[in-house]
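In the current project phase, we have settled on a layout for protein records. One protein thus recorded is set out beneath this paragraph:
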Amino acid sequence: MKNLLSSNVGYPRIGEKREWKKALEKFWSGEITEIELLKETKKIRLEGLRKQQEIGIDLIPVGDFSLYDHVLDTSVMFGIVPKRFQNNDGNTSLETYFSIARGTKNAVASEMTKWFNTNYHYIVPELDDAKPFLVENRPLTFYKEAKDELGIEGKPVLLGIATFLKLGKGYEQEEFALLIKKFLPVYIQVLKELQEAGVNWVQVDEPIFVKDLSEGDYQAISQAYELIAAAVPEIKIIIQTYFESISSYENVIQLPVDGIGIDFVHEDSLNILRKYGFPKNKVLAVGVIDGRNVWRQDLESQLRLLETIQQFVDNDRLIVQSSCSLLHVPVTKKTEETLHSIIKDVLSFADEKLEEIATIVKGLRNGKESIADKIQESKQAIEVLNHSKYRKKTQNLVSTEGLNPDRTLPFEKRNIIQKNLLGLPLLPTTTIGSLPQTTEIRNKRLKWRKGELSDQQYEQYIEKEIEKWISIQEEIGMDVLVHGEFERTDMVEYFGEKLNGFLVTKFGWVQSYGSRCVKPPLIFGEVSFDKPMTVKESVYAQSLTSKHVKGMLTGPVTILNWSFVRDDIPRVEVLNQIAIALRKEVEELERNGIKIIQVDEPALREGLPLKQEKWDEYLDAAVLAFKLSTSSVENSTQIHTHMCYSSFGDIFHAISCLDADVISIETSRSHGELISTFEEYTYNKEIGLGVYDIHSPRIPSKKEITDNINRALKIIPANQFWINPDCGLKTRQETETIAALKRMVEVATEVREFQLKVLNT
């Protein structure tokens, strides 16, 4: 079995302690030059390659690194730059690159949405009037760098033509085949140059193949790959899929490539292999190490899986690898010095997953006895966890407690009660929840965690920040206020620190979008409510104003989807446990006089299965969990929720079934597209469509906000519409936040006056 290879699909970009993020933000703030940024990020990139080399990975990916997003990299590589960002010379500077992602004073950033069903966000390619040309062969550049600097014969990574185009916007479905023909020459050019450089293997990522595509799509895709195969006969192409089993397996395995990468973390993949077999002229890259979760795997069970696969694929045609890019997990657990040894022993971050891959390959090459100690070590770590204080619990709490998931009155009747009680104006203004977290706030939190500030000193500081921003919001003229969430690191991590059954790491960061990194908590056992988590700050803020202050919680679906959940506990059970814990927090807020409570679910759409036949089961569970969290309040208490935009029409019915009184949706980068959904469906509850983009470091123009509001009011009645930014303001600067909110309230006031005149005539 000497020909058996180990491989990796992709490696985290951020560095062990987010050095990548820090370098980017220093560059954006003008603290370092472009040369210094590129020098620092090269250092991070080479360190990742060096680690993979030392672990002994045979096929090391190159070109998977990015300064922001790999989809944006592909767009820019092919000259796909929106007209509002184009310059005259046809080149794309680093300034232009970041402008596409973050926007400028005069240009709105490109739309950003979720990468399949993950919490990673990509920049959507704008393909209308596309005239692709090769600006720079990025995979070749990184291939040469790895070879020259470290002597690594790397495996260049290229986002596949089908996936890139399917993720884009600005064309009709029937134009897909024509678009493929338009982009095919630049893809072939990239591959020809790689072939000329002596590249052996190229990884072409086509995760779109796990979704449902039409026969017409596959016909166009097949023709494209036939032309590619004819153009670059000396290079070995492996089509890499992940996140699910391949949907049209028989079509994909017939493509004229040398290998197919399949995610075998999903059981369906093995069932499909059993049913249809695998071509004898292709290599199978077997994704057996879970690239999306952080729990150590039982090596013996993975070896058994591979032994089963070997019944269908010859030994010399196997590659062992991660199920997907390790972009979705933290870099290394070696820095987690404060975690209990039982938990640390059973964790596997990116570096540890590579070691698992190398170990499995060693066992397949030399026999199980060669890795007997590693097999026993993995088995023992898992067994110790299950018999420790961190053990799992499988009791179904929801059925035993018999909780009612429904409000006692329908929305139409609740709405009348709430309007009379709350006394809000037409087109009320609010924000989504978080307000700017300055360097000073973060430093104070760090000092408190280190014990350099007492609990009392830290709480007093947080109260001063709340006082300041309650005053600012009142001066601006906001109608419904927020306390600002200054005590919170992250909207999920914070609750992970407060609820039983969770643990939070110190350096377990993963990239969410741009330089934004999150630290998903670990759910190791039964989740339950301990004590009030948000009441103190919300009640204090409410005591400072006669206006209503929203209580702010993260919803059960988002907490689940943005945490690392043990894979031996049913996810739906964990979801319901979280919902019941949050229900108690909602009741505590109401009991303490908070009349508007927002339970955010930005990850509801993100968690939608990639296979449509699994949607109903997921959405039913999500709706039940949200209603369990929120249904026990009085009819006079107004429940809000917030969601991030992504194919809203797919979940429209489920969103209505949540029975939230008010929903806000992140829409500013794709406002018109979402409005079209409301032309097709009728929504009878109250709603706020984000009227400006908070992800861009810019102050929106009055016209921009006015246009967004008026466009929405053509479809949504004014008495149902709220005016708000499209997402939380945590990452924005104070000055730009105040200026943007002032402008938003100014426009809202003008539109309100006009609407009132219309209603009175």
Q: What stands out?
A: The chain has 27 helices and 22 strands. The first strand starts at residue 5 and ends at 6. The chain has two domains: 5-386, 413-760. Confidence is low (pLDDT under 50) at residues 394-400.
